[in-house]
Each structure stands twice: as structure tokens, then as C-alpha cells.
Amino acid sequence: MLEAFALPIMIAILIGTTIAGLPMGIAMIVSSIFYLVMAGRDVGLASEQVLNGVFGNFVALAVPLFIFAANIMNAGQISDRLLKFALAMVGRMPGGLAQVNILTSLIFSGMSGSAVSDVAGVGKVLTNMMTKDGRYPRGFAGAITATSSVVGPIFPPSIPMVFYALISSTSVGALFLGGVIPAILIVTVLSIVVIIAAKVRGFPIEDAIPLRAFPLIILRALPPLFMPVLLLGGIYSGVFTPTEAAAASAFYALLLAVFGYRALGARKLYEVTLSSVKTTAVVTLVLCGAFIFNYVVTVERVPLAVFNFFDQLDLSVIAFLLLINLLYLILGCFLDVSTIMLVITPLFIPTAAALGIDLHHFGIMVVFNMMIGLITPPYGILLFIIKALNGIPLGEMIREIWLFVGVLVALLMVITFVPELSLWLPRAAGLIG
Questions:
Q1: Global pTM?
Q2: Per the domain annotation, does 14 fall within a domain?
């Protein structure tokens, strides 16, 4: 009797436990086990799905390695050198420190793959610099810091793209390379927006750095700037798999911080490792819950039901992509990235494939959409992080963030309907047909 209602009850338990404050990973595990019991299935299937999903896929191992590399860079003074390099390059442009913020996020994204790491690390320093002595309004400083961090998971490497590759059986290397042009486009447009805002609002230009200082600044920045070259060059030359490249980048960051800059002693290294383990545990818990939950969804043929629903609507490719973008923009206001990626996205992948949409392009569109959700109230997690780290009131940031949200949504439409922006580089590299 209960078997017929197992799926609705599971969803109700998931929603109820989440609202009650249970972490999403645990809520998915609990609700899925309730389903197995009510459906009369072997509860041991839960453990089997976790073991097969987590330990049977080496791509998943890249996630903790990227987390470890990002934490090392934040703790090992590597970000300070990148900040000085960016200041020398673009500090003289209108809205100089805001431009530095954008460029630093692009450079840092080539190492961390995480928007949260960007905001929590170099973003904190930049926001303090911008607000010092009232040079920039606090709300604008917080808003541009959050917005520029969005590029982190678009430019390779990218933790969300690793997750997408797991659920879609697409190439991590192709996804990484496909994010390069969209990331550069995002940074360019944000820079133009800042130039206009600086001229309208009278934002300051930074003092010129003497030419004689440039060689030393560039020389000090070269070792960390080499990390994306190591990571991407290793992948696309065939020397590394994406997981091996993540390990190489973490090891390289460790060498720089411990031996190159002597900025990471035994105690600090222990703290960085502990922090990385805690973050990885949270991510892995969500991943485990998603593997069990997605097994249930597959058994209940939910993706097929979603496909049939869209098939009956007889939507064009354009209408489908618009609908997906709208849905994700709404979900991004309330749900975290891992939940949307691991629970919601698998439902739409079969329909996207059936409509002839390249799944690599679809993945980059989805990841970018979810990054916009990180700065969209009421759940804009990056805004909450900036508030916690820099003490900027949420209200001030929310008043400033809408301009950037509008710009990013416009760019999302461009990336959605000009797929070559995402596919040209992977095709040129021979990673996709």
C-alpha cells in the first residue's frame, strides 16, 4: 500500500527535513532511505549507490584537491602577489580598485574553481581596500566583489563543472576549455560597466606605479600565474587526467607556499588541511545524498516523465532553454549550487540531449546560471559571506547588486543562444565533435 506513495512521501520528508534545518546531504539520505523501506527495496542499496558513486569515479576526487589548492593559496600569501600584479595592470583605469577586483578574480579562478574561495580569500582584502577612507560606497564594493567572483567556476578549473561531468557523462576537459571564452566575455563586460559607473559616480583612479617596479611585481606573480598553465596544459597535452591535474595543482601550490614563499608553517598547514577536510566532508555528504536520491529518481523514471512532459508541450529548443534558464534563476534564489546541480539538473539532461542541445554547452549555461544565483537575494550566499567578513550591511549590497545581476542575465542569454562561445575552443582542441 505504501509503495504507491513512496515517492511523494520521500519528497515530503526531504522538504520537511530541509525546512527544519537538517543539512541537505543528510536530508537526501534520510528521505531516500525512507523511500527504500516504504518501497520494499533492500536498504543496502543506499550504501551500494554511495560506494559506486563516490569511490567508483575518479573525477570526484578532483573536488577535494581543488578545495585544498584554493585553501593553500589563501593562506600562503599567493593571493597577495596576484593582487599587486592586478593593481599594476589595471589600477590606472577608471574605477581602478574595482577593475583590480575583476582581474584578480579571473586570475584566482584559474587556480581555485570556487566562487566562495575567491570571496573568502582575495575578495575580503579587496573589499577592505575599496571601502578604506570611503573611497567607494560599501554596498558597491561588496557588490562588485561578489559579482566578480562569479567568474571563478566559469574559467577553468571549476568544481561545479566537475559535478556536471559526473552526472552527464561529459568530458571535464571539454567543459573546462568551453568556459574560457564565456569567462573572458564576463570579465570584459563587467570592466566596461565599472568604467561607466566610475565616470558617472566619480570613482577614483589609483596612483601610477613606477615603471621600474613592474619587473619585480611581474616576477613575483609569475609562479602562481603558472598554475593555470600547468593545470590546463597538462590536461590538453594528455599528460594529466583532470583528477591528476587537480593533484598536480594542489602539490604545486603547496610547494610555492611552503618552500617558495616560506609562508606556510607546520601549524598553518595543519589548519589549512583541517579546513579542507571539513569542507570536503560537507561536499561529499551532499554528493552521497545525491547518488542515493538520483537512484530513486531513476527507478521511479522521473527523468522520463520530465521528458514526456516537455515532449507534450512540443517546445522548440529556444523555448526550452528560456524555460530552463527562468527555472534555474528562480531556484538559485533559494537553493544552493550543489543541490541544484546534483538533484535538479539530472532531470533535464535527457530532454536537452533529445532536443539536440550539446550537453557541454548546456552544462556551461547551467553553471553560469547557478553562479548568478550566488549573488541573487534572498539566498545570495556570496553576499552573506561578504557581510560576515567585511561587515557590510546586506541592504547596501542588495541596492547595488541589481545592476550587475541584470548585466549577468543579459550575458547568460548571449551564452545560451550563441553556443559557439562555449564550443569553439573544445572543438578546435578536438575534444568534441
A1: 0.85
A2: no
